[in-house]
Amino acid sequence: MNYVLETNNSETGLSREYRPRIGITMRLELESDRFYLSRHYSEAVEAAGGAPVHVSLIPHRDYIATIMDQLDGVLLPGSDSDVDPLRYGAEPHPRLGSVVAIKDETDLGVLKEVEKRGMPLFAICFGMQVLNVSRGGTLIQDIGSQVANSIQHEQGLPRDRPSHRVKIAKSGLVSELAQSETALVNSHHHQAIDEVGRNLVATAWAADGLVEAVEDSRRERFALGVQWHPELGWQSDDLSQALFNRFIAATRDYAERVGNLQLGSRGAQVLKEARG
Question: I need a surface site. Which of 44, 114, 141, 258 has the fewest CB within 10 A?
Fold first, then answer.
């Protein structure tokens, strides 16, 4: 679905394209005690037509609900830390990475609000893993020591270089966007999905069998997770662009449905014409 929505500015009389507000949870640098976020997530969202909104790691229910009231979609980014295995009933593996409690708590609180509101969600790398945990799924804590004959999933620099192929299911959103049964992706993770959580279905796999993408099994929900990083190198990668474009299209639909998007008469006409 490709269409432009316009909103009216009553003060200037001008119209502009409506940019859905996309919440992106931040990350915490333990050494400096600073919130941070790679620039590439926000730049990819903006290029696809969204307005990125950075969400601080404050795991308070009222704060999260207030922020979510202002959003049309959520992007859960990657992280250099791991989900606490106690959250999916496992003991810590010797090669478990660092764990940041307020990051897990904030992401899980945001996911609870996403589920309650039926809000579109795009989850990348760690984001896909914490999504799976929120749905009752489990994780492989360290691929290298727990998966026999695994391929290299931590490619290093340059980070945007496609380093391995994924096999894509014949049906599903990733298949529709890729228009192929395989895709070349980058890879920056040492953990992976083990048991897939409820209302999720795996739709892409690496050569070693590890899950590389999940989608919500409910037709009325937009929730997509990928294990690779489409925010890196999206300028030259068609699938990465398609993933972000479809996500932003879903958030526009959501904004219209819940009333965040005030079209006005001209905007309504644009939408009507675009839909035919």
Answer: 258
Residue with tokens 């695994």: 150
Residue with tokens 């926000």: 42
Residue 1 lies in a domain: no
Helix intervals (H) in 70-226: 101-117, 126-134, 143-146, 173-178
**Catalytic residue from among 125, 164, 188, 256:** 125
Residue 141 belongs to a domain:
yes
Number of domains in the chain: 1
Exposed, middle or buried: residue 93 (CB in 10 Å: 0-12, 13-18, 19+)?
Answer: middle
Handedness of CA 104, 126, 35, 231 (dihedral sign): negative
Query: Considering only CA atoms, which of 50, 181, 35, 185 is closest in space to residue 102?
Result: 35
Q: Which domain holds residue 80?
A: 19-260
Task: Identify whether 229 is a catalytic site residue.
Answer: yes
Does a structural domain hold residue 102? yes
pTM: 0.89
Q: Quick check: is 74 in a domain?
A: yes
User: Considering 113, 215, 231, 256, which one is annotated as catalytic?
Assistant: 231
- Report whether 134 contacts 112 (CB < 8 A): yes
Mean pLDDT in order along the chain per 10 residues (276 residues)? 40 60 96 95 97 98 97 97 98 97 98 98 98 98 96 89 94 95 95 98 97 96 97 93 97 90 48 46
**pLDDT of res. 53:** 98
